Amino acid sequence: MKFSPSLFDVNSLNFERQGNLVLKGATFRILPGEYCAIIGPNGGGKTTLIRLLLGLEKPTSGEIKLFGTPQNRFRDWNRIGYVPQRSALVDSTFPATVREVVGMGRYARRGILGFESAEDKAAIAEAMELMGVSDLSDRLIGNLSGGQRQRVMIARALASKPDVLIVDEPNTGVDVESQHRFYELLRTLNRTRKMSILFITHDIGVIAEDISRVLFVNQTLLVSQSPAEMIRCDEMSRLYGVPAHVVCHNH
Amino acid sequence: MMEMLNYPFMQRAFVAGLMIAVLASLSGSFIVLRRYSLLSETLAHVSLVGVSVGLLFGMSPLWMAVLASLVASWMIEYLRSVHGMYSDSVLAIFLSGSLALAIVIVSLAGSFNASLFSYLFGSILSVSVEDLWVMGIFGSLAMGLLLVFFKELYFIAFDEDVARAGGIRVTMLNFMLVSVIAIIIALSIRVVGTLLIGALMVIPAVAAIRFGMGFYPTTLLAIGLALISVVIGLSASYFFSLPSGAAIVLCLLVIFIVALVVNRR
């Protein structure tokens, strides 16, 4: 049997910003094929946790391993696709076509002086096709709607053919129909392509049936192997500190 | 019209001007997109400190400008990226601080105002063969670096965080970009002048962006607009005895206004 290491292996992770504790003692593992939701109140440290995993912030202490490799020695960043918070908010005058933006997802694979290969072109075309933005190829990113931009940013993340997709509250400013398509896409990627998903969201009700694990982040980290239990109303009320009512829905 | 090219000083001015047009507009595209336009203006003022020191102590003003500009670019990037200071605040400090320092040095010396004038506004008469060699060598180096890392710099300009998360060495490339810009600015002061080089970096990119194209055609258009401005500006400088830098920048302004009118949105 082939050994398959954790995608993320985090041990006793602490992070302080200007003397303030943001994250304390976070310890968890994400396994291949998992669909993991990260929930918690605003300012609780969800985005910080993601940024720590991606090496965008340096932990105060603790250890992060990516695909079994300590983060400081990890080089295969193209195995991780990242769609940041508010990624759809793009400068309307930025001179970038949809094709150029999606193509950025291949830059790390191409390396320095690497020209776009047939494989790169095929991966870009496939990502655009999957996200339904092929017909927008030559349009400027700034001229698209919020939902279209969101799909372009996800296509960029998918163009690198990642093993894991990290998405940080991508639905800010996006209409309900686009949100629905987005959730469908995540489900397809996870179930049919076996892509692992790490997803920060406030709307846990809509993906309740899909997720295999929940990380609740509010300075400390609480990991639930049984999402169904964690997203019970009483549990959510206790975690958020306010009365919460969870509605499992599909828009 | 073509008779001006019979004069060696005009030949040198054109060679230098066209080199600078390509370098300034190419690098300028990146700083405009990163809302870092004032960097060129700031480093130009810093290079004036180098020129003043060079003139005061009898050293090469060009080399001293390169040195001053490089050191300042690293300090600016360090304060911005490591200490997290606002870009515009850091640039404002260096801009006014370096200008003050240059003025003090000039006041102390008091005897090289005529020479300094040509560095402030550019002079086609002042480009020597040696200057061309220096521009050629360092310009090629700068151009090479910009082309090798073109796609990475573009990604960083679009989304620095995602570029970093994708494994692109953002910090190293940011330092490289400001270093290249510092060198280009220092090399440009003979032709365009320290007070006007910022325009040659920024205006072509801003005008080209108005045409609403992708990044690659926008960059090519910016280079084309800069080349046109240098050719017209240097010609005007020759025929009407105008400072070359001012003539080039006025051409750029006309082009910008045309781009603005043609592409009203």
Notable traits:
heterodimer; A: 251 residues; alpha/beta; Rossmann fold; six-stranded mixed beta sheet; four-stranded antiparallel beta sheet; 8 helices; 24% strand; B: 265 residues; mainly alpha; ABC transporter involved in vitamin B12 uptake, BtuC; 12 helices; 0% strand
Report on this model:
The complex is a heterodimer of chains A (about 250) and B (about 260). With about 250 residues, chain A is an alpha/beta fold. Chain A has a domain at about 10-90 and about 165-240: 3-Layer(aba) Sandwich (Rossmann fold), CATH 3.40.50. Chain A is about 30% helix and about 25% strand. A six-stranded mixed beta sheet of chain A has the order 6-7-8-3-9-10, with helices on both faces. Chain A has a four-stranded antiparallel beta sheet with strand order 2-1-4-5, covered by helices on one side. In chain A, a hairpin with a 2-residue loop joins strand 4 (about 60-65) and strand 5 (about 70). Chain A is globular. With about 260 residues, chain B is mostly helical. Chain B has one domain: ABC transporter involved in vitamin B12 uptake, BtuC. In chain B, about 80% of the residues lie in helices and about 0% in strands. Chain B contains twelve helices and no strands. Chain B has helices at about 10-35, 40-55, 60-80, 85-110, 115-120, 130-150, 150-160, 160-165, 170-190, 195-210, 215-240, 245-260. In chain B, helix 1 packs antiparallel against helix 9. Chain B is globular and about 50 Å long. The mean pLDDT of chain B is about 90.
